[in-house]
Write a structure and sequence with these properties.
Layout: H1 21-43, H2 60-72, H3 76-98, H4 104-125, H5 134-144, H6 152-192, H7 199-215, H8 219-230, H9 233-250, H10 252-272, H11 282-309, H12 314-320, H13 324-345, H14 349-360, H15 362-377, H16 392-414, H17 421-430
Length: about 450
């Protein structure tokens, strides 16, 4: 609860004039990039995201698309979005605290996060998006509230240590994978020779089969996924729920600690340093781009070559993943430098303003991407049922079409309304007050 002296304006939603334009543009680009990464899991078997042998084609233009996306963008759009989320926590809370909101700043923040958590749960259960991130982001937001006032050096240091620990964890995971493959191979040889297997040997084979199934689903698993898209809505909800639950809950702790929180902390630091405001010199952003790409692209190609040489096997993927956190961080820095250089230049002003509108309505556009893709790829008696009908490279034509729709409709909507529809709902619930919608 706030003090009696807290004015309503102290905690009001941010006014248009107070928005940081560069953050909106970056957020718009990140929302577009997230769709570019997610589209294969919308339109193809979800294992195809990591393994093009599963679905969508693994030769020609399909393989080229896979290489470009994975070397240039894997994890980076989520990384930029995490940076911006961390920066947003600082911006929102500092604005309210400077206005004298007191404890109400904390109350508003936690209300926002709890409503975001509910939206995330709805997104991965009823809206059927297994790759949903709002749920995990809301948990991060609640944890990071306590760290928002740390010095810049502390934000960078903690973020860097967590990324280093993530890299070390990937190395350990690869060693564990080598051991699992060796144990399963030895047990399989014993089974082939007719020996009676021990409990440990049976478990070793079963464990390795589970690992392989994650990379290459069997006929039954493929048929099940396809049935979700061609059957009833109820069948889709109940069918995908176990996988979504495992992804969101069992996979959440390492994801929060090693994937999202480090970049959110770095985002807090970059906001305080003035980097994200596009106000530093062009030389600074150019150095970020050149330095990031000089490390990230060669590492990404190195990782890709490992995966290709191993025919996208589980063991090859874990080997390549050992340097993933480093290459991802470098590519995020490179992309950020290039994008901020673009924003700072002011070129293509109409496009920048449209991207800013997309970013200002980031929640609406993120959820609308799911709604559009659900209509495209599910049946339910009213959808188009196009799941599995596109090759991998063709799906990026769908991405481009959705980008174009959101580039057009976002500025048109904001020319008449203060918020996107989902932003309006989120703010109204957060502030326990109906927010004015029309300009």
């Amino acid at each position: 609860m706030g003090s009696d002296t807290t004015d309503a304006s102290d905690t009001a939603p941010v006014a248009q004039a107070a928005r940081v334009e560069s953050l909106d543009i970056l957020r718009g680009i990140a929302v577009f990039g997230i769709l570019m990464m997610n589209i294969t899991a919308f339109g193809l078997l979800f294992q195809a995201y990591d393994n093009p042998f599963v679905d969508g084609g693994a030769t020609g233009l399909n393989l080229l698309a896979y290489k470009i996306i994975n070397v240039g963008f894997e994890g980076t759009m989520r990384g930029i979005f995490s940076l911006l989320f961390g920066a947003g926590i600082v911006l929102l809370t500092e604005r309210m605290e400077q206005a004298g909101a007191g404890l109400m700043a904390a109350e508003i923040h936690f209300r926002r996060m709890l409503w975001m958590m509910l939206a995330g749960i709805i997104h991965w259960t009823l809206m059927l998006w297994i790759g949903e991130i709002l749920f995990a982001y809301s948990m991060c937001g609640m944890l990071l509230f306590a760290l928002r006032k740390l010095p810049v050096k502390a934000h960078l240091k903690i973020g860097g240590i967590l990324i280093l620990l993530a890299a070390m964890s990937s190395v350990a995971d690869h060693q564990s994978m080598i051991g699992a493959e060796a144990a399963a191979s030895s047990a399989q040889q014993a089974k082939t020779s007719g020996a009676k297997l021990t409990t440990d040997q049976d478990e070793a084979i079963e464990n390795w089969d589970d690992i392989l199934a994650h990379r290459m689903p069997d006929t039954e698993a493929i048929a099940e996924q396809r049935s979700w898209h061609s059957g009833s809505y109820g069948n889709a909800v109940s069918g995908q729920l176990p996988d979504s639950y495992r992804f969101q809950w069992i996979g959440a702790p390492p994801g929060l600690l090693f994937d999202m929180i480090p970049f959110m902390l770095i985002g807090m630091a970059l906001l305080k340093l003035g980097v994200l405001g596009a106000g530093l010199s062009a030389r600074t952003y150019l150095l970020m781009a050149v330095g990031g790409y000089a490390i990230g692209i060669p590492l990404g190609i190195y990782e890709m070559n490992i995966v290709l040489a191993g025919n996208f096997s589980a063991l090859a993927a874990s080997e390549a993943n050992q340097t993933y956190q480093i290459s991802r961080l470098a590519m995020v820095i490179g992309h950020l430098g290039l994008l901020l250089l673009f924003i700072r230049s002011g070129v293509l002003g109409l496009l920048q303003r449209a991207l800013g509108s997309v970013g200002q309505m980031a929640l609406t556009n993120y959820l609308m991407q799911t709604i559009i893709c659900t209509i495209l790829f599910y049946d339910f008696g009213f959808g188009l049922g196009l799941f599995g009908q596109f090759e991998r490279y063709q799906l990026y034509g769908v991405v481009g079409a959705i980008w174009l729709v959101e580039l057009v409709w976002s500025p048109l909507w904001l020319s008449r309304f203060r918020f996107g529809p989902f932003e309006w709902l989120w703010r109204s619930l957060t502030y326990w007050k109906h927010q004015p919608m029309r300009i």
